[in-house]
Structures are given as C-alpha cells and as structure tokens.
Write a structure and sequence with these properties.
With about 200 residues, the chain is mainly beta. The protein is about 10% helix and about 70% strand. The longest helix is centred in the first third of the chain and has 18 residues, at about 1-20.
Amino acid sequence: MKKNYIVILGILLSIGANAKLFTIGPKLGISSSKVTVNETVNGISYTSGNAKTGFHGGVFARVSLPVFYVQPELLFTAAGGEIKSQNDIITKINYNRLDVPVMLGLKFLKVARVQFGPVANVLLAANSTTAGVKEAVKGNYKSINIGYQAGIGVDIFKLVVDLKYEGGFGPFGEKFGSNNQSINLNQSNSQFILSLGWKLL
C-alpha cells in the first residue's frame, strides 16, 4: 500500500513539475473601450461616440495542468468612451476601475491558448466632460458590475501575450448627466484588451 502511495505521489509531482503548475507576475497593456448607448429620452436621441484608448496594469497568476489552466488577474483599469446627443453634442466619459477577471483556458500547440471567464469591475471613480465642463458622475454607474472576457493568448518563454474582448451581462450605467439633473439612460461598456505579462516564477 505504501508503495502505491509513493508511486502516485511521484506521478503527481512529475505532472506538477512538467506543467509548471503555478506562475505569477506583473501585467500591463492598452485597451480600446466604448460606451454603448442607443436610446431616445424626452425627444432627444443618444448614441455611441468614438472609442477611447485606455490602459491597465496589475498582476496575474496561473495554475496550470497539462492542457487546462486557471488565470486570475487583479488590474487597475482606466477606460471610457463617448456619448453623442442631438446637435452632435459629445460627452466624454472616463472612469477608473479595479478589474478582477478569472480566465479559464485551454493550451494547444505548446505556446497558444484560448480562454474565457467572468470579470468583476469595481468602480473607483468616474467623470464626464461636456463642452469643456468636467463633472464627477460616479453615482450614475454601478459600483460593481459583472461581465465576461474571451480571447486568445501565446506564451513565449516568460512573456505572456493576451488579446481579449470584454463585454457586460447588463448595463454598466443607468443614468446620464449631472448628479442633480440626470436622466435614466442605460449604458453598457465593452473593450478590446491587449496585455503583456511576465512570468516571475
């Protein structure tokens, strides 16, 4: 019986060593984010404007098996977008979040990966700028929002490259305008994300 335990333990240790079971490291990158809206309120139409280039940085960890892996991340994210109303009035939305994605993935061809998983967005700050007037509008948005991320990745030695799309399961914002004169307006947020990570372990 003891011999069986030793054999099983040896197999598990061998799998863990060959698969490099655990890794952790820094991660940073850029994104192209968009605020999506398409509604008419009080006779005024609101649509999406241009996407915004943002950035993110933080840490990632990965628990790997020979084919499957789990990769949680903790990232500070700066993103946003634009909302256009009638007469081409543009409101620029900027926000800072703490994003916590948990990616579930499959590895193939030794270096390539596909991945999908949930993400929690914790809002830290939000502001809007219209005609040069800047306002804090954190109250217009959910303090915590749940979405998803999906994409592909490659590992080149210690370098980790991820290209992902992020969407939400529901509206990220439910109001628009100043805190004193806001209207009900559902806003969703999406972004394309390009990240670089480095395996410290």
